Amino acid sequence: MVELLPSILSADFAHLADQIAAAERGGGTAIHVDVMDGHFVPNITIGPPVVKCLRRVTSLPLDCHLMIENPNEYIPAFAEAGANWLSVHYEACPHLHRSLQLIAHHGMKPGVVLNPATRVELILDILPMVHHVLIMSVNPGFGGQEFIGFSLDKIRRLAELRRELGLAFRIEVDGGVAHDTVAQIVQAGADLLVAGNAVFGAGCPEQDARSLLAAARKAANE
Ligand code: DX5
Ligand code: ZN
After folding, report:
1. Which ligand 1 atom sits nearest the alpha carbon of residue 36?
2. 18, 63, 153, 174: which one is catalytic?
3. Most buried by CB count within 10 Å: which residue of 6, 28, 153, 198?
4. DSSP for residue 32
5. What is the C-alpha separation between 12 and 18, in angstroms, rounded?
């Protein structure tokens, strides 16, 4: 089942509760929260205190995407704040196995994220540990960037590996998911679609979430 995860990076930060409620009415089933530290990526966003506040205004799962150095140090704080899914970058984790164990130990669903230049084969051994694999289809740091075409091959490869290995992890895609790209993304095998600009960019999150999800479901024959 294809799901839409509105990314609040492109929302109006002064009205997050309203923006999230609108995206939920439009069919969003988890909220994607981008955490950036100005080191791993060239931008700074939000951390556990904001997640804690979001926890009070929505019952949807909070999908926190850590784009930070030394993510292990912050895993307990995100659990405490109420994050449900927590993903760390392959490129930021020299001890990825330990990071994923730590996330699960804190009661959250572990995810691993791959930058555009990182090959899917590198995470083969830890696939049984993850709830989701997040394929970055832009270089992380900013919303509203153009979808990188070869990400489709990575999604296909990952879907193939999932079948071959008999696993059930979800395939999440983040970056440039929009009306003109969503059909190919879904047909390649993605089932969790993150969208920031396409949902919040035009100021009509409810309608834009609804029509993007409808296009995704149509492409998936759901
Ligand atoms: C980028 C973030 C994304 C971002 C996607 O580093 O990880 O979640 O919000 O934005 P769009 O959907 O606008 O490409
Ligand atoms: Zn993200």
Report:
1. 6
2. 174
3. 6
4. E
5. 9
